[in-house]
């Protein structure tokens, strides 16, 4: 039954909620800048002391993340071209519509955690505290990159799609790895970014493949 396809997304949603609540309420201590409180403080402090902070790695992770965002621009342009040419949103490819809705969902989750602060970053940005959970670079890069890997094979033809997808995977890997070792997020916030990304992607994949089997 098609309804069974939503079991995995539902389970992953529950995992994301439980993990977020654990971050909010377990081992909370004021170990952050300006005595900001952080969940899983013992783990986060230990990892933080081990890796420190590296502005170069932060810069690299930001550049690779921005390059991945170009995928959003690419598919937005494709959708707009189809809309103008076909003169009806109903005639725009279903895959593009689903991808666009997914991007909106990711932005809604991003905006929610910007307002509902779970953890603040272990560093100050321009002298101010900023939200750290989940790592937004992790969230955006994984959601945009992995969804593109699924959609690319339909819109990028020939052998080029393989090389293009390799570039996407490299950029995702660089963003995730360098975000971890840059020290601009607590490690549990990076993990949270991965968990929430996988959850959101499970909904995207379910919707994308809903009528394909």
Describe the protein's topology.
Elements (H helix, E strand, L loop, with lengths): L6 H19 L15 H11 L3 H32 L7 H22 L20 H20 L4 H23 L4 H22 L5
Helix pairs in contact: 1-7, 3-4, 3-5, 3-6, 4-5, 4-7, 5-6, 5-7
Kindly describe this structure.
With 213 residues, the chain is mainly alpha-helical. It is 70% helix and 0% strand. It contains seven helices and no strands. The protein has helices spanning 7-25, 41-51, 55-86, 94-115, 136-155, 160-182, 187-208. α3 crosses α4 (94-115), α3 (55-86) packs across α5 (136-155) and α3 runs antiparallel to α6 (160-182). The longest helix has 32 residues, at 55-86. It is globular, with a radius of gyration of 19 Å. The model has no long low-confidence stretch (mean pLDDT 91).
Structure at a glance:
With 213 residues, this protein is mostly helical. 70% of the residues lie in helices and 0% in strands.
Descriptive labels:
7 helices; 213 residues; single chain; mainly alpha; globular
